């Protein structure tokens, strides 16, 4: 998530890695129907380039215990969470 969701108290979350959220322009194009899920996925993966240290950090945390990925999208199969999960798993 690049924007904090309304109604969620920040003291309820241990870590917010804003940099791994969907870039705002990308989510706008996807929500407007200007790009497909497949194109969204390609662009989101590109947005992770240069952020490998953040992915590795989350993978290290996952090795020690459960991590939870949050998003405002209701359908996890059409959300950056599924893509982010795969990217993190590459470091496990």
Spell out the blueprint of helices and strands.
Elements (H helix, E strand, L loop, with lengths): L23 H8 L5 H11 L4 H13 L15 H10 L3
Helix pairs in contact: 3-4
Considering the chains and any ligands shown, give keywords for the structure.
single chain; 92 residues; mainly alpha; 46% helix; 0% strand; globular
Spans of at least 5 consecutive residues whose pLDDT stays below 50 are none
Assign the structural class, choosing from mainly alpha, mainly beta, alpha/beta, alpha+beta, or little secondary structure: mainly alpha
Cα-to-Cα separation, first versus last residue: 22 Å
Residue-averaged pLDDT: 90
The largest sheet is: none
Tell me the number of strands: 0
Succession of helices and strands: HHHH
Overall shape: globular
Any idea what the radius of gyration is? 13 Å
Helix content: 40-55%
The helix tally amounts to 4
Number of domains: 1
Strand content: under 5%
Overview of the molecule:
- The chain is mainly α.
- It contains four helices and no strands.
- The longest helix is centred in the middle third of the chain and has 13 residues, at 52-64.
Report a brief summary of the structure.
This protein is mainly alpha-helical and 92 residues long.
